[in-house]
Write a structure and sequence with these properties.
The chain is an all-alpha fold. It folds into two domains: 2-75, Orthogonal Bundle (Helix Hairpins); 105-215, no CATH class. The protein has six helices and no strands. α1 crosses α2 (37-44) and α5 packs across α6 (160-228). The longest helix is centred in the C-terminal third of the chain and has 69 residues, at 160-228. It is elongated. It starts with a helix and ends in a 12-residue tail after the last helix.
Length: 240
């Protein structure tokens, strides 16, 4: 747009130049008498100046039309750039989603309990789905997420929905195993706490028995001397 404005400025300057020339020629034509050679030359060039001025006046609207068209194209380019940027963001988000889905899928496939799951048509469907994803067919992830009824491949009767159902069943089995592990851990902790409690009670009981035995020994050792020091034949004290 700066270039178009520069061209328009040049045209305006040339129009002012030719209009000044034509104004002077008009003044000279009114005098008719006592014209010098230069003034007569300018009068003779009047058609040239008129033609140039007319062409410039007709040219300027076309330049403005070009400027408007360029501005419109610029707006279209900005809109397209915005659209491309939006699509790039959506693509990046889709890739991130696919990456998360891949992590999830492979976490199921390589779970330590996967080998314990029984074979079935749905398990075969999941295995076939994993092969599709491993081959770079990321569109399969969208079908898997949507539980599509499309078959996984030609000659294969299982569908993406079967693969998704198997994952649900596998997750349920894995969760049941996790609950069992938590129950076993809690049971082990409870037994260990019970064993510690009983051991502590036994320790305290033994300490109490040892103290009691010690007190009885000391008491029995002092008892004869205590009795011997008492004079049972001495008269009872009289109340005053």
């Amino acid at each position: 747009m700066e270039q178009i404005e520069a061209v328009n400025e040049i045209i305006r300057k040339r129009l002012r130049f030719y209009n000044k020339k034509l104004k002077r020629v008009t003044e000279y034509e009114k005098k008719k008498d006592a014209l010098d050679a230069e003034q007569k030359r300018l009068i003779g060039e009047k058609p040239v100046h008129e033609t140039a001025s007319s062409e410039l006046e007709h040219l300027q609207p076309h330049i403005n039309d070009v400027a408007a068209a360029i501005a419109s194209k610029d707006e279209e380019i900005v809109a397209l750039n915005d659209k491309v940027e939006q699509q790039q963001k959506q693509l990046a988000a889709a890739r991130l989603t696919h990456f998360k889905e891949l992590n999830y899928i492979y976490s199921v496939r390589h779970h330590e309990r996967f080998s314990t799951l029984e074979g079935s048509v749905k398990r075969d469907a999941f295995e076939a789905f994993v092969q599709l994803v491993a081959g770079g067919d990321f569109a399969a992830i969208d079908k898997f997420r949507a539980r599509s009824s499309d078959v996984l491949s030609e000659g294969h009767s299982a569908t993406f929905a079967d693969a998704a159902d198997f994952v649900d069943e596998a997750e349920a089995a894995f969760e049941a195993h996790r609950r069992e592990l938590r129950r076993q851990a809690e049971e082990k902790r409870r037994k260990e706490e019970e064993a510690r409690r009983r051991a502590e009670e036994e320790r305290l009981r033994k300490e109490e028995e040892a103290r009691r035995a010690q007190y009885e020994t000391v008491f029995r050792g002092k008892l004869p001397s205590t009795y011997a020091s008492i004079n049972f034949l001495s008269p009872m004290p009289q109340n005053q």
